[in-house]
Amino acid sequence: MADLRLESVSKSFGQEEVIHDVSLEVAHGEFIVFVGPSGCGKSTLLRLVTGLESVTSGRIFIDGVDVTHVKPSDRRVAMVFQSYALFPHLTVAENIGFGLRLAKTPAAEIRRRVAEVANTLRIEELLERKPRQLSGGQRQRVAIGRSIIRSPKVFLFDEPLSNLDAALRVLMRLEITRLHNRLQATMIFVTHDQTEAMTLADRIYVFNHGRIEQSGTPMHLYNAPANRFVAGFIGSPAMNFLPAKVRRQEDRFTAAIGSSVVPLDRSLRNLPQGEISIGVRPEHMSVVDPADGDVEATIEIVEELGAEVIAYLQIDATAEPVTVRLPPQRQVVPGQRVGVRLAHESFHLFDSDGALLG
Amino acid sequence: MERDALYWRVILLAAPIAVFTALVIWPLLSSFYYSFTNWNGFNPEYDFVGLDNFAKIGTDRLFASAIINTAIWMVAAIFLPTLLGLALALLLDSKVPGGTIFKTLFYLPICLSAVVVGQIWIWIYQGDWGLLNTVLRAVTGSDFSYAWLARPNTALGSVIVAWSWQQTGLSMVIFLAGLTSIPDELLEVCDIEGATAWQRIRIVVIPLLTPATVVVVALSVINSLKGFDILYIMTGGGPFHSSDTLAMHMYNESFKKYLMGYGSAISVVLFLIALTIIRIYFRNLRKVDEIYG
Ligand SMILES: Nc1ncnc2c1ncn2[C@@H]1O[C@H](COP(=O)(O)OP(=O)(O)OP(=O)(O)O)[C@@H](O)[C@H]1O
Ligand SMILES: [Mg+2]
Question: Going from the N-terminus, what domains does chain B have, and what CATH number goes with each?
Answer without folding.
Answer: 52-292 (1.10.3720.10)
